[in-house]
Each structure stands twice: as structure tokens, then as C-alpha cells.
Amino acid sequence: MSERILVVMPNWFGETLFATPMLRALRSARPHAFIAALGVPRAAEILKGNPCLDLFLPFETAGFGLRMLSRLRRLRCGVALILRRSLTRTALLRAAGIPRRIGFTNRKSGWLLTDGVRPSDGSLHKAQTYVALLAPLGIPPDGAARPYEYHPTQEERSDAAVIFGAHGVARDQPIAILHPGANWFHKRWPAERFAQVADQLARVKRCRIVLTGSPEDRPLAQVIEQGMTAQPVNLAGLTTVRQLAACLELADVVVSNDTGVLHLACALGRSVVALYGPTSPVITGPLGDPSRTVVIHRDGCCPSIPCFNPDHPGFAGMSAISVEEVFRAVTDLLGNAECGVRNAESKPSIPNSEFRIPNST
Fold first, then answer.
1. Cα 16 from Cα 235, distance rounded (Å)
2. Beta carbons of 40 and 11 less than 8 angstroms apart
3. I want to staple 80 with a disulfide (CB 3.0 to 4.6 A). Which of 6, 138, 158, 229 is the partner?
4. What digits encode the pLDDT tens for the residues 142-180?
5. Taking the model in full, what pTM does it have?
6. Rounded to an integer, what distance in angstroms lies between the CA atom of residue 22 and that of residue 133?
């Protein structure tokens, strides 16, 4: 019987992208293994079409977790790689009879592990720390921060073309996507500054401005829209995650706070301007082409990084980032009138077939 491996994914879709270099390294070292992922539904959205996986298993706790326990037992995995510190999930793996459980040493659930890996001291990107979990399997990390993986489908690309076409977005001018949301409100660059830089880009660089976000971001995007002189396309709350990703692929440049959409843009090879405040670009920064990635961050914007307290007096936070420096960063990335051609040539090729991950065993 081939080796059977379960990977317990992080909850956030940005961190799920961080895990894709580890999945690629695992598949490369174990080409004939059965590899399954266990995670929340939003992780499935990111991993759809990933050829490193044979199965995605949605995590559920209904019925005191007995149904989940039964599914895990039927998988008959010999190894579990646990990417998050979770007492519930780790205990479930032990109860399911998975003999080898590899994860980060920690007080919360470390006592349930068979192989504990020392967490990073904060000097490595999270994508590299996930790869380090492979060491107990004899798969040494190479020390490099590898790019993320994301696989749009032809149907999703067609959806994006239809969405843009319906809003009059064409390739006759640069497309700038602005993503103003973030899961912490103090990770968000001020809405009025997004509006100001959007107007500058529309006026000076002839950019077509597209605002994106989740349904919860819709009010924020409307504030930006109302604060602009130019007329943007406001797609916040109007797309699925997969449709949004396909729209990102059509952008010449993406301006985003530290959030999952930023990392999706990097996975799709887009030029990005990443706005960081209370989080560390070293740990959760964008892993894209360095020549097409600009990170704007003030080391002293918060008393500590990551900063969980938005009310520290005397610290500028995201407001330390000026409109002018964001505009200059976008302008540098756009370069010249050939930017659209250059970005189009760098888009991933459309695969010949779609790899579908089943939703259950």
C-alpha cells in the first residue's frame, strides 16, 4: 500500500497559500503517496485544482465530531502533518488512530504530537516554517522561500472576462485593482487615501480602477467610491473567491493591505504594492517576483510587530504610509505603456485539464 499522508491546513486562506510550497515539496519527495488535506471550506477554495493533493476533506464538528472521526479512520493515514496549533484537531487525529503526528511544539497541543518541530524564531516566512515540518519525514528544507501555487480554471477565467466586460473594463488602458479590506481594521490603509491614490492613477496613468472585497467589505468600498472623482468599478461583495482570483489575474497592478487577496495576486504573478502596518513582511510578506513586488512598511509604526492593540498612543500605524509613495510605487511597476503586454505575457498558461478535489471520502 502506498504511503497515506494527511495535512491539516491553517484556517485563513492567505495562510493556506503559504502552505502550498510545502505541499509541492511533499509531492515532489513522495510522488506516489496518497496526500489528503483537512481544512475549513475556504481552504478548499484555494486548493481546488492543486495537483499535489488527492483529496480535500472539510473539517466539521457536528455530532460531537463523530462523523469527522469516522471519515478520518476510513482514510487510514499513517502520518499527519499539522500546520496549526489546535488541540481539537490534534486530539481528533490521535483518536482516529493516526500513528505519527508531526507539528510545531507548543503548550496547547504539543503533548499529543509524536514528532515536535521547534517553531521559527520569527526570522522566517511562514511558508518556510511549514516546509520545516517535512524534516521528520527526511525531507530537508532548502532554505528558499518558494512561491505560492494557485490554479484558476478556464471557466473562472471566462467568468472574469464576462464580469470585466459587463463593467466596461477593457485592455485599452492599465487595470489597477485596489483591495482595501483586511481582517483587522488597523491593518487597513485609510479609505480616503485609497480614494486619493485611485484618482491620481486614473488621472495621471489612465488606469481603470477596480475595487474588490468580500460582502463585508462592500460598505468600505462604497466609501472609497464616493470619495473619488473618477468612476471605479466596485466589485466588492459581487464575486466568489475563485472569481475574484480570476479577476486579479487580469490586473496590471494590485494595491492591497496584508490580506489573503494580496497573496492570491502574488500566486497569479501580478505586480503588487503591499501595504503593511501591524504585521511583519518578514513573516507574512508577499512571495512574488521581487522585481514586481513593492512592500511599504514602517518598522516603527507600532511598538511591537505583530501588534494586536490598535490604540497605542503615539504610533502612526497604517497612516504612516502616504498617498504619494503608493502612487510612486504603482507608477514604477506600471513602468510604461508596454506594461499591459508584459503582464499579459507573464500570465500562467491555461491547463489542458482541471484537477478536481473531491469534497468527501
1. 24
2. yes
3. 6
4. 766 688 999 999 999 999 999 999 999 988 899 999 999
5. 0.88
6. 8
Distance set, CA 127 to CA 89, 110, 317, 319, 354 (Å): 21, 20, 25, 28, 25
**One-letter amino acid of 165:** G
For the stretch 300-322, pLDDT in tens is 788 788 887 777 766 788 889 99
